[in-house]
Design goal:
Shape: elongated
Number of helices: 10
Structural class: mainly alpha
Helix content: over 70%
CATH superfamily of the largest domain: Winged helix-like DNA-binding domain superfamily/Winged helix DNA-binding domain
CATH topology of the largest domain: Arc Repressor Mutant, subunit A
CATH class of the largest domain: Mainly Alpha
Radius of gyration: 22 Å
Distance between the termini: 25 Å
Largest sheet: none
Pfam families: Sigma70_r2, Sigma70_r4_2
CATH architecture of the largest domain: Orthogonal Bundle
Family: Belongs to the sigma-70 factor family. ECF subfamily.
Number of domains: 2
Protein name: RNA polymerase sigma-70 factor
Strand content: under 5%
Order of helices and strands: HHHHHHHHHH
Keywords: Sigma factor, Transcription, Transcription regulation
């Protein structure tokens, strides 16, 4: 059962949940348990772990029912399972695997962003980092990595030496690596859910 609960019914269920009504909680559980399990299982390929993650989400939902802020139930639950999967993977991956995900992001010059919330967040992280760069470095980075201009073309266009262009690129990439490393959870989410 994948369909969302109708908005009116969802609001009733959420109000019931906040009030501690077990029937409301059970309805939410029955409707969403299996779709959440499928999301976790497809990513982890481990039935037991997937079941544990889903169970944990519902246990926390019940424990925090009076204080948790939920606007859209489906979005809340599916976001919760995705983050639970990521947290589990983070405890399992080695530093080498971390570096692989990390390098893959910055080396792809012609990567296209999926039209998803995570894709938009990924772009927002990049944009945020770019805005803090010096103007010249920002312009050169955009031309090279986002517009696919060669170093030679950028040098001619901006009346700079190729060495100067390479200096700005190195400086920009080094800074953006540090900036994006701080937001690694978003990058990891993006690669696990959209770049299989």
């Amino acid at each position: 059962m994948n369909e969302s609960i109708p908005e009116i019914e969802e609001e009733t269920l959420l109000n019931g949940l906040r009030a501690g009504e077990l029937n409301a909680f059970q309805t939410i559980y029955q409707h969403y348990w299996y779709p959440l399990f499928l999301v976790a299982f497809r990513k982890l390929k481990n039935k037991e772990v997937a079941e544990e993650l889903v169970q944990d989400i519902f246990v926390k939902l019940w424990e925090r029912r009076a204080t948790v802020r939920i606007i859209h139930l489906r979005y809340y639950l599916f976001s919760a399972i995705r983050y639970a999967v990521i947290d589990h993977i983070r405890t399992q991956i080695t530093q080498e695997q971390y570096n692989t995900y990390y390098r893959a992001f910055l080396v792809q010059e012609d990567a296209t962003t999926e039209e998803t919330i995570l894709g938009n967040e990924l772009l927002a992280i990049l944009e945020d980092g770019l805005e803090t760069l010096p103007e010249k470095s920002k312009e050169i980075f955009r031309l090279n990595y986002l517009d696919n201009w060669s170093v030679a073309r950028i040098a001619t266009h901006l009346h700079l030496s190729e060495k100067a262009v390479e200096y700005h690129l190195t400086k920009a990439v080094k800074f953006l690596r540090m900036h994006c490393k701080e937001h690694f959870i978003i990058l990891l989410l993006y690669y696990i859910f959209y770049c299989e």
